[in-house]
Amino acid sequence: MMKNIISMICLLLSMCFVACHDDDNEEKGPQLAFSELIYTLDAEEPLKVEIRVSEPVSANTSVKFNIRGAAIQGEEYELSADEFVIPAGETTASITVTPKNNFEDGKTIKLELYPIDGYVLGEYNFTLIEVLTKGQLICSFQEENYVLPGEIEIRMDAKDANTGKYFSASTDTKVPFIVGEHSTAIEHVHYEFVDNPDKMFVIPAKKSYGTIKIRFLKWEEGKTTLFLLVPDENDRVLPGDVDQTEIYINGMTTPDRLEGKWVFKELTSMDYVKNNAWHGGEEIENMTEAYTDAVGTMINSGEWNGMESSVLKKEAPHMIEEMGIGRATVNYKLRDWVFSRQRYWGEPIPIIHCPKCGNVPVPEEELPLRLPEVDSYEPTGTGESPLAAIDEWVNCKCPVCGSDSKRETNTMPQWAGSSWYFLRYVDNHNSEALVSREKADEMLPVDMYIGGVEHAVLHLLYSRFYTKFLCDIGAIDFDEPFHKLFNQGMITGKNGIKMSKSKGNVVSPDDLVRDYGCDSLRMYELFVGPPELDAEWDDRGIDGVNRFLKRLWNILMESKEKDVQPTKEMIKLRHRMVYDITTRLESFSLNTVISGFMEYNNKFMEIAKKEGGIDKETLETIAVLLSPFAPHFAEEMWEQLGHEETIFNAGWPKYDENEMKDDEIKIPVQINGKTKAVIEIPADISKDDAIAAGKEAIADKLTGNVIKEIYVPKKIINIVMK
What we know:
CATH superfamily of the largest domain: Isoleucyl-tRNA Synthetase, Domain 1
Number of domains: 6
Helix content: 25-40%
Number of strands: 35
CATH topology of the largest domain: Isoleucyl-tRNA Synthetase, Domain 1
Radius of gyration: 36 Å
CATH class of the largest domain: Mainly Alpha
Largest sheet: 5 strands, mixed
Strand order of the largest sheet: 5-7-3-1-9
Structural class: alpha+beta
CATH architecture of the largest domain: Orthogonal Bundle
């Protein structure tokens, strides 16, 4: 559905663009545009995206483009170049989009051409690339059993093996099935496939299931059963929970559950459903109260009689769609809500109440309407907003007729501003537009939204609503506000109770900031546990974080005036630290980031004792890594190391994997599986040399016959002895 909406928006925007250019006779010159408005990216094959000019170029011409969309470049796909180059004398150029294995279905890539001198952007000044997933599918039959009285429809459901979500593609998808070797019914004698002689389920575009039809031809005693199976040797298709279905032909055999014998019955399909326990039970006669169990068999429901209720709940939307009387949809609980608030804070509602003209909007040139300066914004106790008591602000003239009028004194709710503030943050001094194209391209949509789970319903829902509305009116050119969402946990009071003023369990940070500093408090909050989980507040651990910062400061002060040269050990530890901290940060394991700082600080303290200090580059690296977590402390470190500019212009450190490798390693030496010694050997030592070194270390313990010598590289040396 969303893909269709996006495609429609693209088409409408392109139509608007064409209309604008038809009316603008001053824009002349060769046209530059994408060859296609919408491309489909096969998740297993590279895609060539092409641009065209209306006449050959006289020299090699570079055309830059902007990249938007939810898909992440480098993680989910790669581009062969960051610009198009049209060769001299040619009219086309192309780049290749190569998907990676983790490209999620439903995501899009939007490429937008930047204008260049001498050329007019044509109809397709941007293109939208949709993803067609061709990864592995988990396929299941809808039912374990069917009965074939005449002609029936068998359904197979498909899910994406990577995401577990129901499969959906922009084109038809074929899924094979096989006839089981234990089938007794014979094709073209007892039954036939109506539309699928090639043994394929066809999943239509935008659907998550496919169907086949089987027709009954002849009943013959003993030739009554047909098995259909999901193949288990297909590279793409994986069998799901219902990996086979058993089809009984009219006059079929059914097991007699009481005697364990086979009996023959002439049954209709509905008889089959009603008489088999695995299809949901029996009709309850003389009911005295409503049926309230979670599952049951449908009765008095026309053609749905006999269906299991939970199955029908899933299938009914599809059935209704096929009947042409409705369609399945997702309903967001975007409800009507009282918009006004009787309080001082909040955006004032720009309406003037005129006794003659009625409700009149504040003239655009007077916007934004600002709140007046007040000494008190306490509630009035009368039910009116505190603004109602400020006569010089409330009383005004009607902008239409000039009559004495009054301003609206109610203010907007908090979500009125919190639903779009992030758009304005990136360009808050722009007096011409909500946000400039350049700033939006650079910083929007938001890469990651971090907030409590309590925001998920209202704030995030209204943010999407506002963004889509602003996109529809052309104020912005994207319709989703955030790429990723991270729900942080909550710091609770004792016994996991949410902190609140009414409960009296709020902990003031003032004393902790006074005693330990705000950086210690910030780091301790991150240290208490995984950021996505709630944590009970206990301030006893803050002292440990504060001691870590003091130890690091001591290393800095002891080393900064010394010309400490980096040793191999310092360099190796520095690169390992950058790798570990970066990896943990990227995975959002913030508590382990803090513990990582402490672990490496202890190692650097040991080195500093041996070498008389730590080299300047390592200290600078520590400061930069620490800056997001303890910004004031890190800035002080940076200044002490001789820098005048802020640390936040330094750039994130990089690591070299070659510098992280050990020159020597410690491994245990065992006799018959029991460790007798630990030796240090070169990391690249040969097997023979390693065994020789191990035997030398335990020579006094080798008192028997050595029957086997084992060396597991970089792990263990084991001497087997009798």
